[in-house]
Amino acid sequence: MNKFDASLQIINAIISIDNYVVGINVPSGDVTVQGSRITVTNADCGISGGNEIDNFLIQGSVLDLTGEGVSSVGLLNGRDIQIDSSLIKITSQNSNAVYTDGAITVRNGSVLEMKAFYPALFSTLDTTITDSTVIAISTDDSGIYSRANILINGTSDILARGHWAGINANGNITINSGKIYSTSSHDMGIYLRGIFTMNGGDVYAQGATGFAAIGARYTKQEGDTEPVEKIVINSNYADIGGGKVSVSDWYSGASGEINWSRSWSSFVAGNDGNTKSNYNYSIIIAHGAFFLY
After folding, report:
1. H or E element, residue 231
2. pLDDT digits (tens, 9 = 90+) for 98-152
3. Which pLDDT score is estimated for 37?
4. What is d(CA 83, CA 138) in angstroms, rounded to the nearest whole number?
């Protein structure tokens, strides 16, 4: 299966692979696993795809992937990964559990149990979880990390724990329903660079000591004047501890030769009289856990 124009279909099969560098390798990325049970142990990669063909589907299947090599990625692909009504268990000692340069879609009662060194669930494009259970634990990074957006829908049940933020996105995080538990041992519980929107569901988020439950960082764009809140909570919800959303004033810095002005939206204690404070990076991350119900 080392051809870039090859495709692989595994249907109603039982496969066990041990002590290979890559358990299943399909460089085209055209992979379909349906109604099957696959176990891969002692491999650098469980199932590896590519970026030639956008068709990587795990459906109605059970996967158990364990890797201890340098890369040790359970599922690896260059385009989208679709997980549908499947049970997937992945342990990656030195890398990601699931990595894709595309999007990740988890749906229809799927269950993902992942423990990894880098982000357990990583996508370059959107990660969307619908009516599924995801346990994502990282020992050195974020549990779930998307360079784009994260969307959680339906009856989903999410547990994300990380050295850095439990759930981390370069874009927006939108929770329409479900239950989310996100914690960090060294950072915010949930961290993003876009807009955090909660339309429904339950959320418990907790940062490390001195770090916010949720922090949304925004970089000033041309035409911006006053900072704007980037945490939006449906009016039917409230912080059980009485906390409230606060937005900081602009603060300036530089990344190399690039100057920037940024603002933070976060939660502060309910008895804090400030609605717009001069928080900087180390001060804004001050409120602990909250639960929206």
Report:
1. strand 231-233
2. 999 999 999 999 999 999 999 999 999 999 999 999 999 999 999 999 999 999 9
3. 98
4. 20
* Pairing outcome for strands 144-146 and 121-123: parallel
Q: How far is CA 60 from CA 34, 36, 226, 239, in A?
A: 6, 7, 50, 38
Whole-number Å distance between alpha carbons of 208 and 285: 9
Whole-model pTM: value is 0.91
Q: Evaluate whether 184 touches 163 at the Cβ level (below 8 Å).
A: yes
Instruction: List strands edge to edge, sheet with 37-41.
Output: 14-18, 37-41, 62-67, 87-92, 111-116, 133-138, 157-162, 179-184, 202-206, 290-292
Which of 13, 31, 166 shows the shortest CA–CA distance to 100? 31
Give the pLDDT confidence of 212-239 residue by residue, as tens digits: 888 999 999 999 999 989 998 876 665 5
| Six-digit token string for 70 | 């340098």
What number is the average pLDDT over the span 166-178?
A: 96
Find all residues with CB under 8 Å of 55, minimum gap 6, and list them: 7, 29, 30, 31, 32
The candidate with the shortest Cα–Cα distance to 61, out of 111, 123, 4, is 111
H/E element holding 283? helix 281-284
**92/118 Cα distance (integer angstroms):** 9
Q: What is the pLDDT of residue 153?
A: 98
Domain segments of the chain: what residues? 7-217+277-292
User: Which of 242, 119, 123 lies closest to 182, judged by CA?
Assistant: 119
